[in-house]
Design goal:
The complex is a heterodimer of chains A (141) and B (224). By secondary structure, chain A is α+β, with helices and mostly antiparallel strands. Chain A is built from 5 helices and 6 strands; from the N terminus they run αβααααβββββ. Chain B starts with a helix and ends in a 23-residue tail after the last helix. Classes of the chains: A alpha+beta (141), B mainly alpha (224).
């Protein structure tokens, strides 16, 4: 019995799989240090009431949504009202490509990479069971 | 040069359309990825960044693993299973590994036989199974790449949806991983099964994948 024709393309296969492995591994969990630093900087800014600096660490859409939800129409005034927890100790960071998840003792922060660095998409987030999205004080769903 | 191209027409043709299709997948995948980024209020990424992303890697790997599994199963199944009337099958009375004489190995090899077919021991055993082993290795590597890249891609979506990321063991037990896997497997198995059955009754003049046009429907193992 003969071999199907496509098998003859085998020579391309192994090399291509190895090349692709590089791509796959590049998307794996990186150490996430820069993302964790951005989350810590945000909490430091909030603790020192530097809301302008804290707002600059929010992702643009999150910053706009935060400003829109404020009576005064500014991100800074809304952050002053929000109950952002004291995060406590940094427990760990998971980074996948351009997204990161930073866990503190009393807070979880969601971040996305931008050309300007890591920006926060959700902070003051608490879990709602195993699978449901977290509820966030700033940003989130 | 012309002779070399003609003598390698099949591999050159499939190699070329593979590269064109992969490029098309990369270009459209990049555009789709950036559409989704914009919709989520996230920044677009460059084409180079997309090529190195887990999103691209999982989409490529999940198709590759299923194609190599398809041929792996086909190679092994056709050793032992036959199909009356199919040119894809051996003769009905020939299932199994066949004799050394039929396989031209050892004492039955000839001057043009590959070296490892002429020698005995582990080298002959390895060479006798080299096609299946290589296809199997590429299948396993592709499936592993799918699981790793898929885990990373899934976790990016989880984080964008404000859900917790999952570990690799959790991911390979998830509906997402098995849905991506099985939706590819079912189409491959259908295509192979269809080829085996349709080639009993239908013909493609001049194709070695078909029986000669005038061959009887119950004629097994003949190619045109």
């Amino acid at each position: 019995m003969k071999t199907p024709k496509s098998i003859r393309c085998l020579r391309f296969g192994l090399l291509a799989v190895l090349t692709l492995s590089g791509g796959a591994l590049s998307g794996c969990a990186a150490d996430g240090t820069a993302a964790a630093e951005a989350a810590e900087a945000f909490h430091r800014d909030v603790a020192s009431s530097d809301m302008t600096a804290a707002c600059s660490l929010l992702q643009s859409k999150t910053r706009e949504d935060t400003a829109r939800s404020s009576d005064a129409g500014t991100c800074e005034s809304q952050l002053e009202k929000d109950k952002i927890p004291d995060p406590g100790r940094l427990l760990g960071t998971e980074q996948f490509g351009r997204d990161a998840f930073v866990k503190f003792e009393n807070d979880t922060v969601f971040l996305a990479a931008s050309d300007a660095g890591w920006r926060i998409t959700g902070v003051g987030c608490a879990p709602n069971g195993e699978e449901a999205p977290y509820t966030c004080e700033v940003g989130g769903k | 040069m012309k002779v070399a191209i003609r003598n390698n027409g099949l591999s050159l043709f499939f190699g070329l359309i593979f590269l064109l299709a992969l490029l098309g997948q990369a270009l459209t995948g990049h555009a789709l990825f950036n559409e989704e980024q914009m919709a989520s209020g996230l920044e677009e990424i460059s084409f180079g960044q997309y090529l190195l992303s887990s999103n691209f890697a999982v989409d490529v790997a999940e198709n590759w693993q299923s194609e190599y599994l398809q041929f792996l199963l086909y190679i092994f199944a056709t050793v032992w299973l036959v199909q009356k009337g199919s040119p894809e099958s051996k003769e009905l009375n020939e299932p199994g590994l066949e004799s050394d004489k039929e396989q031209l190995v050892g004492d039955y090899s000839n001057a043009k036989s590959p070296k490892w077919a002429r020698v005995s021991g582990w080298r002959r055993t390895v060479y006798s199974n080299s096609l299946g082993m290589t296809m199997g290795l590429i299948f396993l590597l592709s499936w592993l790449v799918q699981s790793i890249a898929g885990n990373s891609n899934y976790n990016q979506e989880q984080i964008q949806n404000f859900q917790r990321p999952v570990s690799w063991p959790e991911y390979i037990a998830s509906p997402e991983f098995w849905n991506r896997t099985l939706q590819n497997w079912q189409s491959e198995f259908l295509a192979v099964g269809s080829m085996v059955v349709l080639s009993i009754y239908l013909r493609q003049r001049g194709s070695p994948e078909s029986k000669p046009v005038g061959c009887a429907h119950d004629d097994t193992g003949t190619t045109g």
